[in-house]
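Problem: given the chain below (208 residues), write out its structure.
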Amino acid sequence: MRAFIYTGGAVRVEFITEHPKADDITIAADAGYHTARALGERIDLLLGDFDSIGDIPREEGMEIRQVPAEKDFTDTQMAVEIAVERGAEDIIIVGGLSGRLDHTLSTLSVLEDLYSMGVYGTVTDGQSRARYLNSSSTLIARSHYKYLSVIAADETVKGVDIEGCKYPLKRATLYRRNQFAVSNEITGNVAFISVKKGGVYIIESKDA
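Solution.
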């Protein structure tokens, strides 16, 4: 089962290619309501402390869950927790990459948490799209995103292979404090990325 979570922050709606199907769960986290509406998506659940949404909308068929403003988790983290509780194995977060840097870093850390639970996670705002990978491999299809970066999430990441790109790597070591696998470009139909040990963020992006 897939879940779509819509959050606040700037979203380039014209470049969002991920859209829910009829049997997917859709959750709006506070001002993410406006993101979902800009994309023309339905909302199954609206949750948050509602400090940024404005007037709370009341729509037929939409569940509303209000939480205290003083809490231990962000609205996005709570939305992810609910999606996992409801059986989501694939979660797409739309938004959360632009605006406040603390929220951006928090959203990226959610990908790592999901990976540890065996849940596939993606976050996108139309200008960038991020995934997390740890001691495994994946294929990234060529898309409208021009750049492909592999960012070390751990202090040291070993055995990094990148194929199908302008700047290939073979058995490379990446360091969190010295990132260099940035602004690569996919040259074929797909790129192959493999990591022997450690975690990385795989980030596709385009210029503003």
